Amino acid sequence: MAERLATTRKAPLARKVLLGLTALFIVVLGGIAVWTTTCPCNQMPGFMLLGDVQKAPVTDWSLVNDIPLCQIQIYAGPMPHAVNLNCMATPEGGLFLSCGNCEHKFWGRHVQDGAHGRLRLNGKVYPVVFTRVKDEAVLDRAWAARVKKLQVYGEARYNPTPPPDAKRPKEWGTFQLRSAVD
Hints:
The model has no long low-confidence stretch (mean pLDDT 83). The termini are far apart. This protein has one domain (52-179): Pnp Oxidase, Chain A. The chain is built from three helices and eight strands, in the order αβββββαββαβ. The protein is α+β, with helices and mostly antiparallel strands.
């Protein structure tokens, strides 16, 4: 009789534990779903950029100058990694991402020349190819485009507005992006 009573008491406990684990699993899964669809958020990276994937190639990226930050997705090993970044277009329509101390940033260490990724702007996702810029003249043009854009968007917590005549810091790097759609 005592064994039967003990078995009867264990069954409700096992059900409660199973229900608790199931609820925890649902909450975690829901949190991951929300994080995946809404981030990157401020300084928190995201996973995969979702949105309306654009099939036509883009040759003039001037539209990025009307958007405070771009969202990019790179691949760090087999996993996607998405972040918010400064992006800017030169007067010629070239697209650049700014990066202070790129080698110290997770995404900067993992993106290689010729790497494919994604760029999200206003819910639209553009397949892109990354190229690290090393040419001083191109770096200066990208820096000038950055300074000009930041004069419009003003001071931000992690993105101070440089003076209009600011010189490009030596540790500042940039990537040029081009459309990966042919």
